Structures are given as C-alpha cells and as structure tokens.
C-alpha cells in the first residue's frame, strides 16, 4: 500500500492503533540533508526507562515494557510516495480497546472545543465549569475524546503562556487598536527599561462621556493586586443614575510596597470574579472589556425598565407621586424606603419665626433606642434641611425632612430636591456610545471556522424540527464532505495513489488486530 505523504502513513498506523487498543510514537527519523528518507514508528510501550532512583523509591509512572510492535516507513524515490516496508504486530503487553480513548495519543481537542475553551477563558469562565459543560453536552465523560487535564494544558500552553515583555507588547497593541477604533479612547503607557509595564492608564470613550454626568462622586480603588507581575490595579469608580457602580477608568502601577496602596473593598469582588491570580495583561484587559460590557448592559436593562414600567406608589402622598414620575426605579425605591421610615418618626415644633421653623424629629430605631434630629424649614424659600445630611450625601430627602414637610402640609417639594442626577427623563450622551471591546485577533482558519459555525446554527435549528428535515441535512453534509475530500485529494495529488477504501483500516483483516501474512502483502 502506498501513501502520498509520510504524515498519511503515520496516520494510517495511528488509526490502527486506536482500533486495536494501543498508542504509538515516532522512535527515529532518518534524513538525507533536509529530506526524510525513512521513519520507525513503535508502540508507545517500546523501550525500558532507566533511572538512578531505586525502584522502591520511584513514584513516577513508567510505560516502557520493551514492546517489539512497530512499523518501518520509507520513501519510494522514483515514485514520490511512501510505503510500509516492515510490520511487527506482536506486543509484550495486553491491548485494551475499551481504554484506547484514554491514551494520550488518541485524546484530541477539536477546533470546536478549542474555540469554546478560548471564548470561555475570555469570558472569565473557570476551566472546571467549561469542562463540565463539555461533559453535559456530550452525554457523559466516556463520550469525550479528551480529559480535563488536556483542556487545562491547552489553556496554560496556548492561552496563558506569555512572557512579561511579550505580554506588555500585546497590551500596548491593544491600547493602540482601541485608539484607532475610537479617537476618544484615552491611554497613557510608561514602560521600564526591560519593556515591562511601569504605569498604564486608560479610559474608553463611553466611560469618558459618562464622567460628564457622574463626576460628582468618584472613588479611586487600589485594593486589587494582579500578582503575576506585581502590578497594582487602580480603578476609578463612579455611580450612575440607577445607583449602579460604573468604571470610569483603570490604571496599572508597579510598586514594590503594595501594602501601602491598599484602601474604601468596593471593586475587589469584581476582580476576584473576573481575574485569576496568574492572569496575563491580555487576559486582564479582555476581562475589563467584558466588565464594561456587562455594566453597559445592566444600565440598558434598567433604562428600558424605567421607560416601559412603573413602580406603584405605596401611599397617597403627592410627594411620592412627584418622585415616581421623575426618578429612575432604583432611586425611587430609596425614596419609598424613606417615606416608609416616616412611620417611626415623631415631629415636634420647637420654635418658629417669620416663616423659619425649627423642628425636633424623634426616630424610634429600636425598642430601646430613640434618636433625635434637628430639622429646619423655610416656608418662604421652600427649603428643608436635616441634621442627618442624607440629602447632601446621598441626594435623596430623608425620612426626618419628609416628616416635617408632611407636618407643614407641603404637597410638592421644591425642584431643587428633584435632582437631575437621578432622573429617568434625561437623555445622557454616554448611553449612545458602546463600551470598548476589542475584536479577537484570530488566525484565518479560526475566523473561517467561527463564520461557518455561525451560519450553520440556523440551518441546524431549522432541520431539527423533524426527522425528514434532519435526513435532508445529513444527505447534504455527506455530499458536501465527499466534494471537499475530492478537492483536497486532487490538490495533494492523491488521485492516482488513493486507498482502495475511504477507511484505511478496512484493509486489515479485523479492526482489533490482523495477521502477519496479510500485512506482509502491503506495498
């Protein structure tokens, strides 16, 4: 039997090995110059490992059992093809077909699996959860042709394995890409002499626009340390009109005394959710983008709820209706909580002169605690002010002030207490800007794969409606697969050297083994 390439010959033996319950490895390859002349492929249990460690003390697993099974492959110079010139089928160990899929050689991460792993890693989904999703989708561990260790090795080797300098370089490229996509993206980057990051700051266009509305209260939080490069993450955090935390900017700083930077734990839970201790800079920035996207979506959902729904008033108070009409749902609920708190308040007028009144409001906090607050009310200016300063700090009237307004029989509060900051009717510019999100830099094959998967999902969903439609799609897949294999074979020049059967294993007498005399006829 002839083969077009050395790879085809090796694949032929690997397919047999999987069917027979064993695995193989390339033992040696002979070359003449840059050209391979022949190759020896053996059973993976060939050889006998020698170790200076005493057998009684040795704990590492060994596989070598001097197994003689092997094949010899060499090139036919005049024909430009490869043949198997010698085959040894005898093994020094039993072969188990039922456990073949557990052998390392036969475990494989398909492109579909790899793309899912990469996407889940970018989304911050833990590897253990990703693996369990594969198990559930396949219908059990036995249906997968890989194990969790293979998946974790792929993540470590392909996704996370990057040097600090290379990581900083890719991080810099990310900042430049985002600036090109939107000129309002701002960043500053300072590198050390070894090209590692010393200081970085960035803010996307949406965050910068949001700052115009939410600049009144901003915290700078440096509680999270990325650890991998000893970098401290500093986040500029604001509060939007729904009372939700929103990131306005982010910085990475290298400092030898990290403890001196630690502050207010507000963003620590976010970073623990999205980032692992050994995350690279590229992973960090992807997770940061993901968080910006999730915050944008949360705001959009809350805006939609404010527009399409109404929270009913709990009382007949016209003041409550005033806030219901103006405020976002989140802030109106806070106002309602203060209105309910009026029930625990007792209001007493202490003195009054020329429209200026001083009240003492007692609040029953518990069965044994009764707090007192001084509230002043100017009926001419329609101004109320409480000693607790809730309005000054949180932007909503407190229950003590509301009690005084109720005592004064005020039906509508002054517009100064209906803050635009919490209004659901204001059209804010930043809500029309999408948060920054980098497009993944994929190799061409991965891009083509994702495009094909995306298009095929609708077809599969339509076909799954009935057995008849499913059968049509199966036939179409078979025809397309045959056409693609034919084209691939022509490009490789295999039209004259192809196997007599599409499955090379059918050349053997049985799938779990074959007789020596049959193999000697090959070639």
UniProtKB/TrEMBL annotation:
Bias kind Basic and acidic residues: ranges: 512-523
PROSITE patterns per the UniProt record, alphabetical: ZF_SWIM
Region described as Disordered: spans on this chain: 490-523
One family name in Pfam for this protein: SWIM
GO molecular function, one term: zinc ion binding
GO biological process assignments: regulation of DNA-templated transcription
Domain of life of the source: Eukaryota
Residue span(s) of domain SWIM-type: 373-409
SMART domains: ZnF_PMZ
Compartment annotation: Nucleus
GO terms under cellular component: nucleus
Keywords associated with the record: Metal-binding, Nucleus, Zinc, Zinc-finger
Family: Belongs to the FHY3/FAR1 family.
Function in brief: Putative transcription activator involved in regulating light control of development.
Name assigned to this protein: Protein FAR1-RELATED SEQUENCE
Organism: Arachis hypogaea
């Amino acid at each position: 039997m002839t083969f077009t390439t050395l790879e085809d010959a090796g694949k032929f033996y690997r397919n047999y090995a999987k069917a027979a319950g064993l695995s193989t490895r390339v033992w040696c390859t002979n070359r003449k110059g840059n050209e391979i002349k022949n190759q020896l492929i053996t059973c993976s249990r060939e050889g006998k490992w020698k170790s200076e460690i005493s057998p009684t003390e040795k704990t590492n697993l060994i596989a070598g059992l001097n197994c003689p099974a092997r094949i010899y492959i060499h090139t036919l110079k005049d024909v430009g093809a490869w043949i198997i010139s010698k085959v040894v089928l005898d093994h020094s160990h039993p072969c188990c077909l039922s456990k073949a899929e557990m052998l390392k050689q036969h475990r494989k991460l398909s492109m579909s699996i790899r793309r899912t792993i990469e996407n889940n890693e970018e989304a911050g989904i833990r590897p253990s959860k990703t693996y369990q999703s594969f198990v559930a989708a396949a219908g059990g561990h036995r249906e997968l042709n890989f194990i969790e260790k293979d998946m974790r090795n792929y993540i470590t080797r392909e996704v996370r394995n990057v040097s600090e300098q290379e990581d900083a370089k890719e991080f810099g490229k990310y900042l430049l890409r985002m600036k090109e996509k939107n000129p309002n993206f701002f960043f500053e980057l300072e590198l050390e002499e070894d090209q590692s990051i010393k200081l970085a700051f960035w803010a996307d266009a949406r965050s910068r626009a949001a700052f115009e509305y939410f600049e009144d209260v901003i915290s700078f939080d440096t509680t999270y340390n990325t650890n991998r490069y000893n970098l401290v993450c500093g986040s500029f955090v604001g509060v939007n009109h729904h009372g939700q935390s929103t990131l306005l900017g982010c910085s990475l700083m290298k400092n030898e005394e990290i403890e001196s930077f630690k502050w207010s734990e507000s963003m620590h839970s976010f970073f623990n959710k999205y980032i692992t201790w050994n995350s690279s800079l590229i992973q960090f920035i992807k997770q940061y983008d993901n968080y910006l996207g999730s915050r944008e979506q949360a705001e959009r959902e809350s805006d939609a709820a404010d527009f399409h729904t109404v929270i009913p008033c709990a009382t007949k108070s016209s003041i409550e209706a005033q806030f219901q009409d103006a405020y976002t749902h989140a802030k109106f609920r806070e106002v309602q909580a203060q209105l309910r708190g009026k029930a625990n308040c007792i209001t007493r007028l202490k003195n009054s002169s020329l429209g200026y009144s001083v009240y003492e409001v007692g609040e029953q906090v518990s069965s044994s605690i009764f707090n007192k607050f001084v509230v002043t009310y100017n009926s001419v200016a329609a101004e109320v002010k409480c000693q607790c300063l809730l309005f000054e700090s949180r932007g909503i009237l407190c229950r003590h002030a509301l009690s005084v307004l109720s005592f004064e029989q005020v039906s509508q509060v002054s517009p100064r207490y209906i803050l635009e900051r919490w209004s659901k009717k204001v059209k804010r510019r930043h809500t029309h800007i999408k948060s920054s999100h980098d497009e993944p830099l994929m190799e061409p094959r991965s891009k083509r794969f994702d495009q094909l998967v995306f298009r095929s999902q609708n077809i599969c969903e339509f076909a799954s409606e009935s057995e008849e439609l499913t059968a049509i799609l199966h036939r179409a897949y078979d025809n397309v697969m045959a056409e693609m294999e034919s084209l691939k074979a022509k490009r490789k020049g295999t039209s004259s050297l192809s196997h007599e059967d599409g499955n090379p294993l059918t050349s053997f007498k049985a799938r779990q083994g074959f007789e020596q005399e049959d193999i000697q006829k090959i070639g």
